[in-house]
Write a structure and sequence with these properties.
The chain is of the alpha/beta class. The chain has helices spanning 19-30, 42-55, 72-86, 109-130, 157-177, 196-201, 205-213, 223-233, 258-265, and strands at 10-14, 34-39, 62-66, 91-94, 140-144, 183-189, 245-248. Helix 1 runs parallel beside helix 2, helix 1 crosses helix 8 and helix 4 (109-130) packs parallel to helix 5 (157-177). Bound molecules: coenzyme A and NADP nicotinamide-adenine-dinucleotide phosphate.
Length: 267
Amino acid sequence: MEMNDFKGQAVFVAGGSSGINLGIAKAFAARGASVAIVSRSSERVAGAVAELRALALPGARIEGYSADVRDAEAIAAALAQAHAAIGDFDVLISGAAGNFVAPALGMSAKGFRTVIDIDLNGTFHVLRGAHEFLRKPGASVISISAPQAYNPTMYQAHVCAAKAGVDMLTRVLAMEWGPQGIRVNSIVPGPIGDTEGVRRLAPTPEAQMRMAATVPLRRMGTTQEIADMALFLSSGRAQFVTGAVIPVDGGSSLHGGRDLGAAVAMQ
Ligand code: COA
Ligand code: NAP
């Protein structure tokens, strides 16, 4: 499969109704794939489905479902409905996530658990639930991780713990599912402009400028740049790549998390 042709393929995107994940869904839809997305808000799903249908090529199907990745049964039902509509998944993206900025002592047990439940348990529910519907051999499974997975970052204890777990799931499932011809990788976006993730860590234009200044390439990334890596990983050009945790971050991963901690602390 070349990077520009996903005609006849089926793509499922968890958390696909906005931001980076919607950008990935759009990239596959524009290249001919049938795409199914799931997130909690039915309004957001309907809006994203309309955007995706406007891009879709003739013959492709676009479907949307409302479910919470914390609810394994609801996600299993959405996966089954999507499978009935678009067939075996060639590409599975797990990108639903939640974040807020708080010191560990400012988080209740429920606050910590909420992010672990969405990011880590939710990823397990999506990947585990989708396994029976993945194309074997051939499927490309991608979890959307975050730099917090390997950069200890102040006020992000929940996200650091959750995304480190996500990347370990990537590595373990790459080994367990490799013999079936399923590849499992993580993409680690750096700060991506005009996204909810950045707005939560850097709510003001000044804070966003400080954040961009910490990136070796001195700018934030774009959703298209993350989508490009998802296309590459799912293309014929990446068929020997599995278990990889790949930063797409302008070099941010080279200098640890203290700068982000400082940026948050200065707000
Ligand atoms: N500081 C400390 N605790 C916080 C908090 C904050 N800023 N924001 C939420 N929490 C806590 C809540 O207080 C609650 O715990 P409590 O009942 O013991 O007080 C717990 O987190 C759950 O909050 P709730 O609002 O009920 O959760 P939810 O399931 O409705 O929403 C969130 C989940 C909190 C992660 C919400 O921000 C969300 O839905 N985010 C999705 C979008 C997003 O984060 N995008 C960026 C992705 S990187
Ligand atoms: P976003 O726009 O808030 O996207 C999050 C998506 O997940 C939304 O579609 C949301 O829709 C869905 N979602 C949230 N909680 C859910 C749940 N419990 N069940 C089902 N769906 C849920 O955020 P974003 O900034 O684009 O981030 C997308 C991904 O990139 C995340 O995994 C994030 O950790 C990662 N990331 C982002 C950045 C960045 O710079 N933005 C950097 C590094 C990593 P609903 O509200 O409808 O559920």
